[in-house]
Amino acid sequence: MRFVKGHGTENDFVILHDPDGALDLTREAVARLCDRRAGIGADGVLRVVRTKAAGVDGDIDTAGAEWFMDYRNADGSIAEMCGNGIRVFGRYLVASGLAAPGEWDVATRGGPKRVTLGPSGDVSVDMGPPALLGPGEASLAGEVFQGRRVSMGNPHLACRVDGPVAALDLSRAPGFDPVVFPDGVNVEFFRAVGERHLEMRVFERGSGETRSCGTGTVAAVAAAAAETGSEALPEGVWTVDVPGGRVTVTLDDGTSHLKGPAVLVAEGETCRDWL
Ligand SMILES: N[C@@H](CCC[C@H](N)C(=O)O)C(=O)O
Fold it and tell me: What keywords sit in the KW lines (predicted)?
């Protein structure tokens, strides 16, 4: 099986080219591919499949997008959206000659997302309006953190912390109420380090701590922006520093845009009989 490896601010992915939907991508196969010692190693898999061959017709709004991002977490579970993944997905389509630089929609389980990119450089994606769903809490190393529940198509709990995020122990999954989050949750911890400038760490559902999470950065910005108390989120450009680098999140026109690097680093083929 041919693959490409890529990352967006070190949130890394194995990209599988499956235009006609021929791959039987089991949960076990994804977990083996993502294993960092016995496999290729990644936070998730991006299966690149033509929307018409993805078997999602009628289930989701695809807006006529030619390509569908089938995203899987490292444990093989399916997620609705991946903000860094879709930027890497866009870079892959352009680098492979499957799409021209410019602007177009990619279908995801979280709805169609408009990707904007040039022949090289940063990739931007319209992530849609963050949905603020009210308060929530997580626990970590015996401490309880208050946060805001945010949907970016996938579920988030964004918690402000007082000290540097580097001091947090994310070696174990944060605790949360499974009644409030029946499908699990991605938990972000953020701190303001300047005006419209956050630092953030994340523990992702299905992948553990990752070095970046695109949907998580938008959720953290939405939670921080909501602290102003105004009914609509105030417009503005935010910088978010994550362990893997820096992205910008723009809140404008009732939507959000995520922008940052998306890099393809290697391509190869899995060995016969391995997977
Ligand atoms: N890293 C991603 C989010 C991937 C999905 C997430 N773990 C979930 O299960 O919802 C991003 O960049 O947004």
Answer: Amino-acid biosynthesis, Cytoplasm, Isomerase, Lysine biosynthesis
Report the chain's terminal Cα–Cα distance, integer Å.
Answer: 9
* ipTM beyond cut 0.95: yes
Cβ(115)–Cβ(123) below 8 Å:
yes
39 lines ligand 1 (CB under 6 A): no
Given a contact cutoff of 8 angstroms between Cβ atoms, the answer to whether 165 and 190 are in contact is yes
Is 255 annotated in a binding site? The answer is no
Instruction: Indicate if ligand 1 lies below 6 Å from the C-beta of 154.
Output: yes
User: Residue 81 C-alpha to ligand 1 middle, in angstroms?
Assistant: 6
250 lines ligand 1 (CB under 6 A): no
C-alpha span between 213 and 84 (Å, rounded): 6
Fold for 2-125+261-269, please state it. Diaminopimelate Epimerase; Chain A, domain 1 (3.10.310)
Orientation of helix 83-95 relative to helix 214-226, angle to 10°: 140
Residues facing 135 on adjacent strands = 148
Is 82 known to be catalytic?
A: yes
Whether 174 is in the pocket of ligand 1, judged by its Cβ within 6 Å, is no
Q: Domain limits of the chain? A: 2-125+261-269, 131-253
pLDDT tens for residues 43-91? 999 999 999 999 998 899 999 999 999 999 999 999 999 999 999 999 9
Which atom of ligand 1 lies at the shortest distance from residue 210's CA?
1
